[in-house]
Write a structure and sequence with these properties.
Layout (H helix, E strand, L loop, with lengths): L21 H6 L4 H6 L4 H11 L11 H6 L8 E6 L8 H8 L1 H15 L3 E6 L4 H17 L14 E6 L9 H8 L24 E5 H5 L1 H7 L1 H5 L2 E2 L2 E2 L1 E8 L5 E6 L5 H6 L13 E5 L19 H6 L8 E6 L4 H15 L5 H18 L7 H12 L15 H4 L1 H21 L6
Parallel strand pairs: 1-2, 1-4, 2-3, 7-10
Antiparallel strand pairs: 5-6, 7-8, 9-10
Helix pairs in contact: 3-6, 5-7, 6-7, 14-15, 14-18, 15-16, 16-18
């Protein structure tokens, strides 16, 4: 059974129907973390985040405190919050901006104080209509409450926050592409180096970019201390984390559980969490960290939900999205749909991604729709190897950002695990189960 004794750090208000309002936020300890932070030196606030060992929750898993420390020797000009959650089956940030926007806003203010930034931006996916409305209202309420603007809560610290809706491009989840979009340009990733945001970010100035869930942890960390957060989980994977569980489970949804102390099996099967697989069918495969992650088989169900533990098995926790496939799921169709998404969302700046994703999608389409050939299976792997040479994980980098080299992961996983399914599609003229 899952270990559910850990505190709910970012989802504690979800049981309230009015969780998004200022009144509910204040009634449940809202902005107390900010008030405490303002009594501390900015360096002391940053030190608590360091002590918490908070890994970024956007996908890359880079320690938030270390990212901040890269800029402390030079003044930081801007803080940017990445809420452009656009990957299929990833919806935990969507949950946070709709259910608890004040928690996000408070976290942004705390981070800005620690970094001594006076201008912050919250970049949200444009399709998050309700989330955008609630975050903007939370920002407006924070100004009225004295938590934003000039001399916050009577201190010498001032901050302005701008809520910026994106135009729906998946590529803007990549931090330099997001910065380009904020500057009013097309969302093309920047070449790194030299354009690391810590050095040359928004408007050419040093910039910190953090994820929505990362920011949402900060009020609890400041209130209870970084050591209390680090005491949860194990190893590098401290604290709790939100997981977006979907696919062939009885109770799909967003669940906050302690890292490492729980396994994929706990998340999928515990009655208080995923509730098991539909019709009690066996798990055939699952995606452990967003659709750009290599797939796992049922033999990995007992793997702990930890950054290093999953990485050691050749995949990643990534965006915290877990997709379950049972024995009724067609792996060819699943891989085709993922490939189609990446092909559509390629920004087109790099040839391996722009051309390779389209070629892969067309081959996958004909296999799924009756025009495939047995030799297409090896052709797919050959094309994948051209995009990410060696087909290792993490993938070899052949493009400006990681979108391109991530495309082969689902195809390689599906062929490695279910090659016979691909050959059956070629021999039967499409999916034999249709």
């Amino acid at each position: 059974m899952a270990s559910l004794d850990a505190p709910r750090i970012v989802s504690s208000r979800s049981e309230f129907a009015d969780s998004f309002t200022l009144a509910r936020y204040l009634a449940t300890g809202g902005y107390e973390g900010l008030r405490k932070a303002l009594t501390m030196f900015p360096e002391a606030v940053a030190a608590e985040v360091d002590a918490a060992s908070l890994l970024g929750r956007g996908g890359a898993g880079f320690p938030a405190g270390r990212k901040w420390s890269m800029l402390r020797k030079s003044p930081v000009s801007y803080l940017v919050v990445n809420g452009d959650e656009s990957e299929p089956a990833t919806f935990k940030d969507h949950y946070l901006v709709e259910r608890d926007p004040h928690q996000l806003v408070e976290g942004v203010i705390i981070a800005a104080y620690a970094l001594q930034v006076t201008q912050a931006f919250i970049f949200l996916r444009g399709e998050f209509a309700l989330g955008l409305e609630r975050v903007q209202q939370a920002v407006n309420d924070a100004y009225d409450h004295g938590a934003l603007g000039r001399k916050i809560f009577g201190s010498d610290f001032s901050l302005d926050i701008v809520v910026h809706p994106g135009a729906g491009a998946y590529i803007c989840g990549e931090e330099t592409s997001l910065i380009e979009a904020l500057e009013g340009k097309r969302g093309f990733p920047r070449i790194k180096p030299p354009f690391f945001p810590a050095v040359t970010g928004l408007y050419g100035e040093p910039t910190v970019v953090n994820n929505v869930e990362t920011m949402s942890n900060l009020p609890w960390i400041v209130t209870h201390g970084g050591a209390a957060f680090a005491a949860l989980g194990a190893g590098r994977s401290a604290g709790t984390r939100l997981f977006a569980l979907s696919g062939r489970v009885n109770r799909p949804g967003v669940y906050e559980i302690e890292m490492v102390k729980n396994t994929f099996r706990d998340l999928i099967y515990d009655p208080a969490l995923g509730g098991g697989v539909v019709d009690d069918r066996p798990v055939r495969a699952f995606i452990p960290g967003g659709v750009s992650a290599p797939w796992f088989g049922p033999e990995q169900l007992d793997l702990p939900l930890g950054q290093d533990e999953v990485g050691a098995q050749g995949s990643m926790l990534g965006s915290g999205s877990i997709v379950v496939m049972d024995d009724t799921t067609c792996p060819v169709r699943a891989a085709w749909r993922i490939t189609k998404f990446f092909s559509r969302e390629s920004c087109g700046q790099c040839t391996p991604c722009r051309e390779g994703s389209g070629w892969l999608e067309r081959i996958m389409y004909r296999l799924e729709h009756g025009g495939g050939r047995a030799e297409d299976v090896d052709l797919l792997l050959d094309l994948c190897d051209n995009i990410a040479p060696g087909l290792t994980w993490p993938p070899a980098q052949t493009t400006i950002c990681v979108l391109g080299p991530s495309i082969p992961s689902s195809i390689k996983s599906a062929i490695t695990m279910f090659r016979d399914d691909f050959l059956a599609h070629a021999h039967h003229g499409g999916c034999p189960h249709d």
